[in-house]
Design brief:
By secondary structure, the chain is an alpha+beta fold. The chain is 49% helix and 17% strand. The chain is built from 27 helices and 25 strands. A nine-stranded mixed β-sheet has the order 15-14-13-12-11-10-23-24-25, covered by helices on one side. The protein has a seven-stranded mixed β-sheet with strand order 16-17-18-19-20-21-22. It has a five-stranded mixed beta barrel with strand order 1-3-4-6-5. A hairpin with a 2-residue loop joins strand 11 and strand 12. Helix 7 packs across helix 17 and helix 19 crosses helix 20. The longest helix has 37 residues, at 513-549. The protein starts with a helix and ends with a strand. The model is unreliable at 808-814 (pLDDT under 50).
Length: 814
């Protein structure tokens, strides 16, 4: 690597140190001051050494210039790390005091807050957004406060949902719990008693919100799925993107196109520069125009982590233009990351921020070597086109494994086909957004933007439907490390050529030039051979794992299972089997994960599908069973999304049956009864509290109780209704083991086995410790999918047997 390229990397250790210390300080804020103090002391020591060295003679300084550069970098490393830790230490007392408002025992509180983050729909059906609390009331006491919170609310609990946007003033009634360590938010507030919009956004935030909504409205009426994608590509508003298209975008590795990032900022700044230059503006005027456009764009799309990173990088680059010192890309990126982490250390824990920075760095560092390597095997133009998505995929893949332990097999090819359409959709869509005062112009521009948006949506759907589009991978940090090693091996195979070894010289000496050339060539070829061998081993393991999850999967499961809990993440999907008949209770959040479970169990058709309610974590995977269901038993339909789910099932040939108490039926040789909800109940609104509750027993099926997502109040009503028939051999714990449970129900049910269907490392803290304690107190053995994967239960003679995928043993029970 040349000296100039090495010099551009000098700020990388500074950014890395700031990131590492910021992550440490925000994860353990009580230790931030302890970390900051020695870092500042070391900084002063290095500064003193540099000052002493600068007093020496110029000749000595020249000879030590290399060491001087290292000392300056070390000083910057220490100062950046110390500044990030100090920021956390300074605000920690106030954050700790605010944390005391996380009330135990479910006591209610009222919070007034300003919305500062995009309102997003989660798989649970909740709206989630960031806000700044300004007043907090507990009982008769109230205090003026100012700290960050995260709010979770069901859309049906918002009084004026059309006014809820960035800049809104809201009043939240519910309960609070401490936010996870490392979050910017101090509290997570659950608006279980409703959310009231006090004031709609005002000023420029109101204008930005109207522009976003105007673009969404102008796309209504255009053919799907491209119509819903236009606002996402232009301004990052994904509210019109359907669940199906969102899943397809993620599976085909195209979801980054709807996340506003550096490419969008570059387009906006470039257009502003060009407009000012066309008007004859000076360099200063062009920079001012670019910054103004960038600020307006950030306000329009809301300041997401990737947007903030991209905007900071663009601002620093423009400052370099103004000063006449345009820096190299990696240096600008490192400086932007360092500044942002000092100003906002909690960005260090943001996966979106990490993906944005890593993707940009990969393009700056690896795209060119990959293009050169690929050009040895294919036309140069194709190599250049492939190098960009390949570099991003290799660098970002390990981080994406944290979200879902799968690898998109066709991601690079999908990006190669879809990415060229993104700039056109962004430019025309942004123009359509700004043309809101002229509806006919906006409609025309939106129609033009539909063409590239439809191409991108079609590409996503095509590749997500191909067999093997998602390769299963290791979970957690082992998966991150393993995929990083595999990515490095792929890069090595591409970049390192099969170099020809120089011919042997007839006169070989110790100093032979041939020998000096052969040594590094031999080393590089050894590294390449190891990389090829590693990839061959990984390919074999992946192919074998894919077979176990599909065609050969049924041979890894106990053949006698009666109840099979699929591992579908944060959601429910439980299979029942009796005398060859199959039922499925809920579908989980992801069609891909449900389809893998069904294939592994060798199930092609369902005699009965039970949808306990229509939250995404229970009905989001329904596409995996469309056309494969005979009868669908469902709870009350309270949302248009739930009605659409039932419509798709009916169109697929399913017979729809609304559930209510006193209903009963058979599954093979087993009997089932509906215990909840009561017919035409008005005591509880549609959602968790009217989940379908089933009692299933007989025909080889253990006496089982499936509680859906019932909270404590309906659980108590169910226990008092007299419809339970305890003791139960198996009980599916309500709402993934949340804290909102009625211990009296579990005392009455007396379950032998408590099944908790829950996602690993979920952000809700499920299952809660108090719920597990209550289950253990009644003598239940706990089986949970987050720790143990797929769980099978069946009767073996007079005993109940439990098989846990990650335990590998069959445990007899009563």
């Amino acid at each position: 690597m040349s000296r100039s390229r090495l010099s551009n990397l000098r700020l990388v250790p500074v950014a890395a140190a700031a990131w590492a210390v910021a992550l440490l300080a925000t994860s353990a804020p009580e230790a931030a001051a302890v970390v900051a103090a020695p870092l500042w002391a070391l900084s002063l020591g290095v500064l003193a050494w540099i000052a002493a060295a600068s007093r020496r003679s110029p000749a000595a300084a020249s000879r030590r210039s290399g060491r001087g550069h290292v000392a300056v970098v070390l000083l910057l490393v220490l100062c950046a790390a110390a500044a990030a830790a100090s920021h956390v230490a300074v605000v920690q007392p106030a954050r700790a005091e605010a944390g005391h408002f996380a009330l135990s025992g479910g006591r209610s509180l009222v919070v007034q807050a300003s919305v500062v983050g995009k309102v997003e729909l989660r798989a649970t059906g909740e709206w989630v957004f960031d806000a700044v609390a300004t007043r907090l009331e507990t009982g008769a006491a109230g205090d003026a406060v100012r700290f960050d919170i995260a709010v979770r609310v069901q859309p049906s609990d918002v009084d004026r949902p059309e006014l809820l946007d960035v800049g809104s003033e809201v009043e939240v009634r519910g309960t609070a719990r401490p936010a996870p360590a490392g979050d910017r938010a101090v509290l997570t507030v659950i608006a279980s008693q409703g959310l009231h919009v006090l004031h709609e956004p005002a000023g420029i935030l109101a204008i930005a919100g109207e522009l976003r909504r105007g673009l969404v409205g102008s796309s209504v009426g255009l053919p799907d799925p491209g119509a819903g994608l236009i606002p996402g590509l232009a301004v990052g508003d994904t509210s019109a993107v359907t669940m199906e298209l969102d899943a397809a975008m993620k599976e085909s590795s195209l979801s980054h196109l709807t996340a506003v990032s550096g490419a969008n900022c570059a387009i906006v700044v470039g257009l502003a520069f060009g407009a000012v230059a066309a008007c004859g503006g000076s360099r200063r005027a062009r920079v001012i125009g670019g910054i103004a456009a960038l600020v307006g764009f950030v306000l329009l799309v809301t300041p997401e982590p990737s947007v903030v990173r991209a905007a900071a990088m663009a601002a620093i680059a423009m400052l370099g233009v103004l000063l006449g010192r345009t820096g190299a890309g990696i240096a600008v990126l490192a400086l932007a990351v360092t500044v942002l982490l000092v100003v906002d250390p909690w960005l260090s824990g943001s996966l979106g921020f990490a993906l944005s920075a890593v993707a940009t760095a990969s393009l700056l560092l690896f795209a060119r070597p990959l293009a050169i390597g690929l050009a040895r095997r294919m036309p140069r133009a194709l190599a250049l086109a492939l190098s960009v998505p390949l570099a991003a995929q290799l660098a970002c893949g390990p981080l994406l494994v944290i979200i879902a332990p799968t690898v998109p097999l066709y991601g690079v090819v999908a990006n190669l086909l879809a990415s060229p359409a993104a700039p056109l959709a962004t430019i025309v869509g942004l123009a359509a957004c700004l043309a809101a005062p002229f509806p006919w112009v906006q409609s025309g521009l939106t129609a033009i933007a539909w063409l590239p948006a439809a191409w991108i949506a079609g590409t996503a759907q095509t590749f997500s439907a191909l067999p093997g589009d998602q390769v299963p991978w290791l979970e957690g940090w082992p998966g991150v490390a393993a995929l990083a090693v595999v990515g490095a091996a792929i890069g090595t195979v591409i970049v390192v050529p099969r170099a020809a070894v120089p011919a042997r010289s007839p006169r070989r000496t110790r100093e032979s030039p041939v020998r000096r050339v052969r040594a590094p060539i031999a080393r590089s070829q050894s590294v390449r051979f190891i990389a090829v061998l590693l990839l061959a081993v990984v390919a074999g393991i992946v192919a074998g794992g894919a077979a176990l999850h599909t065609a050969a999967g049924r041979f890894t499961l106990p053949t006698a299972w009666s109840v099979l809990a699929c591992d579908v993440g944060q959601g429910d999907a439980v299979l029942l089997r009796s005398a060859g008949a199959i039922a499925l209770i809920d579908t989980g959040p992801d069609p891909e994960l449900l389809d893998q479970c069904l294939a592994r169990a060798g199930i092609d058709r369902l005699d009965l599908l039970v949808l306990t309610h229509f939250d995404l974590d229970h009905a989001g995977g329904v596409d995996a069973v469309i056309g494969r269901v005979d009868s669908a038993l469902h709870g009350p339909v309270g949302t248009p999304a739930g009605a659409r789910v039932l419509e798709r099932l009916r169109d697929g040939g399913a017979r729809l049956v609304p559930a209510h108490t006193s209903m009963a039926g058979t599954l093979g040789a087993a009997d089932w009864r509906v215990l909840w909800p009561p017919a035409k109940t008005r005591a509880f609104p549609p959602g968790n509290d009217v989940s379908v509750v089933l009692d299933v027993r007989g025909g080889g099926m253990p006496a089982s109780l499936f509680l859906g997502d019932l909270s404590a109040a309906p659980q108590a009503a169910l226990a008092a209704s007299g419809v339970l028939d305890p003791p139960y051999e198996l009980l599916k714990v309500a709402h993934h083991g949340s804290a909102d449970q009625d211990p009296g129900l579990y005392v009455q049910a007396r379950p032998a086995i408590a099944l908790v269907s829950v996602g690993a490392d979920n952000t809700y803290g499920h299952p809660r410790a108090e719920t597990l304690t209550a289950l253990e107190a009644v003598g239940a053995r706990i089986a949970r999918t987050d720790l143990q994967g797929v769980i099978a239960v069946w009767r073996a003679g007079t005993h109940l047997s439990v098989w846990r995928e990650r335990a590998g043993v069959v445990a007899p029970g009563r």
